[in-house]
Amino acid sequence: MKTPETLLLNQEQIKSLITMKEVVEIVDRTSKDLGVGKTINPTKVLLDLGETAAYPPYSGFMNAMPAYIGWEDSAGIKWAGGFLGERKALGFPYITAMILLIDPKLGFFRAAMDGAYITNMRTGAQTASALKYLVNKKKIKLGLYGAGMQGHTQTEAISVLFDIDELRVYDVNRQASEKFAQDMKDVVKGKIIIADKPEDAAQGDVIVCVTQSKDKFLKNEWIKPGTVVFPMGSYQECDDEFILSADKIIVDCIGQVLHRGALRGLVEEKKLSEKNITCTIGEMAAGLKEERIQKNERILCLPIGTGAMDVAVATAVYNKAVEKSIGVKFAFV
Amino acid sequence: MKTPETLLLNQEQIKSLITMKEVVEIVDRTSKDLGVGKTINPTKVLLDLGETAAYPPYSGFMNAMPAYIGWEDSAGIKWAGGFLGERKALGFPYITAMILLIDPKLGFFRAAMDGAYITNMRTGAQTASALKYLVNKKKIKLGLYGAGMQGHTQTEAISVLFDIDELRVYDVNRQASEKFAQDMKDVVKGKIIIADKPEDAAQGDVIVCVTQSKDKFLKNEWIKPGTVVFPMGSYQECDDEFILSADKIIVDCIGQVLHRGALRGLVEEKKLSEKNITCTIGEMAAGLKEERIQKNERILCLPIGTGAMDVAVATAVYNKAVEKSIGVKFAFV
User: Fold this and answer.
1) Which tens digit of pLDDT belongs to each residue from B53-106?
2) Where does this protein have coiled-coil stretches (chains A, B) (predicted)?
């Protein structure tokens, strides 16, 4: 027996093989599996290439995110990061990523594929899946900060499970908001309102932030009771007051959320710790916890992103590619 | 500008592109770079697929090992592991691995290549490079446990920098020792002696263990003053007495060595800690520490393996492949 060849899939092929509806289902199922411990997601390891480190001198980072997916019996890794600086100046998207899949029993490399498209899709799907367990209604109003790629995928994913009755969008670049409104007019059932001022988008049942802002622009006083807030950026988007006064903090992965994104600063200042985290999305998905929002509550939800979601989606893409004989094979060994 | 394509390299191509002499030089240079902090090697992250975990039920693991190499200005990751069980029964090698390289400034994926061959080569080279700073002579006597793939590459790498005057080899499978003696007769300058009993191989200036033994077979009383011992297996090969009485413990990466391989058990039992580690190989290579063996000393050296070495060697392979137009290009994005 020879080592089986590895299937290579590019971004266009991946796009043709999976829909947002399927990604939302896969993410939801993987969430449940994480909740009951059947999916294994070690804490990601960061290679800082100058995003925050003084050396090396580049404006980027890479995260290594391996996982084993119980319900698919698959293992893999996403190596993904974000780069600004010269990459941005040249007009390339922020995210760069590759996903590798192995046979978890024999160790053969089954596939190598682009990871950027799956990253965007699963990040949207994570919000949608978490919302399933946090709100009580089918029709929701949404406030959105950031009208870029992830603004689109967040909106698409939420619309798989909910009717978006009204969407208020704010972006520092108004043209981006206008393009977003045009692109999303068939996805959003209700009206899309372009906010002139940041505070005008802070309305609705759900607020999603997908910005690269390094400012804490989302103010505590803007956020009304009955709201779930998802700050999805890599930096801190909410002000400290809101984070410290939120009634519940729900996360995807406790180990990760303490060291990256919205909570990092407050954890370093010792104003927040693991004790302040209410539960994981996986525990809600698995039915182990019930945390649906009450009228008087404000919930902070942080699906910062797990490799498990990427590997789970990539496995579904791989299975479909094999079924449809899509992709090129390469013998690495 | 389009995203540049990714170069794919298979094991045969990699073999044709790099020699052990070059690997030893690259490893040595990367060691120095680690010692002065110009190469960044975050602690590897383990995905246990049943090697020691109760779930999932497979006899394998995968380690994610990202690194930035200062002297090459390159970044990459090796995702590598070992599988026994059915993989072994089917006759496949223990190690399975893939290496990805990126442009550290722009985040483009430069290459995807087999990682198993480079793993074997750099593991041998790590021992050779460390020995450069630990012994005083050019002619050495070597005791070797394990006559498999890694036994070969350890011997080849050491013979790049030293004349092996005598080599005593022990393997639980005598046929493996006989094949080794045949394969290595031109690499080893002196005599190769096949040991009938384990203790007969515990002689020489240097003892290298590259076994998959889960027993602590190497006994304290066998190891004479003036000996450097390299237990390179994933499990514990030396008995506790030797580890606890060694005059110096020298490692490649303090963070890793406490959690895997020879020291793990004693660290868990709190009989050993970071305080017992003399220095890193990188510090010796960079000239920051001088720890050459004295006649009355016994040194334990643990180059457990860093992603930095893999990424550094893979970068050299990639540069040569580009120069010689070897490999296939694939557009992932």
Assistant:
1) 999 999 999 999 999 999 999 999 999 999 999 999 999 999 999 999 999 999
2) none
What's the one-letter identity of residue A43? Answer: T
pLDDT at res. B112? 98
Work out the minimum CA distance from A58 to partner chain B, whole angstroms: 5
Alpha-carbon distances, residue A262 vs A95, A216, A244 (angstroms): 19, 9, 11
ipTM comes to 0.94
**The pLDDT value given to residue B256:** 86
Look at phi and psi of residue A237 and say left if phi exceeds 0, alpha if psi is from -120 to 50, else beta: alpha
Interface membership of B77 toward A (CB under 8 Å): yes
**Edge to edge, what strands does the sheet with A328-330 contain?**
A45-48, A60-69, A74-83, A95-102, A109-114, A6-9, A328-330
**What's the confidence (pLDDT) of residue A9?**
98
Select from A66, A85, A91 the Cβ nearest to the Cβ of B45. Answer: A66
- Cα three-residue angle A32-A36-A41, rounded to 5 degrees: 80
- Classify domain A6-119+308-330 by CATH number: 3.30.1780.10
As a whole number of angstroms, the distance between CA A217 and CA A233 comes to 12
Taking contacts as CB-CB distances below 8 angstroms, the residues of chain B near A8 are 8, 330, 332
Tokens of B48: 């246990």
Which helix (H) or strand (E) is A166 found in, with range?
strand A163-170
Q: Which of A9, A45, A49 sits opposite B45 (nearest CB)?
A: A45
Task: Tell me the pLDDT tens digit for each residue of B250-296.
Answer: 999 998 888 888 898 899 999 999 999 999 999 999 999 999 999 99
> What pLDDT sits at residue B255?
85
A127-305: CATH topology is: Rossmann fold (3.40.50)
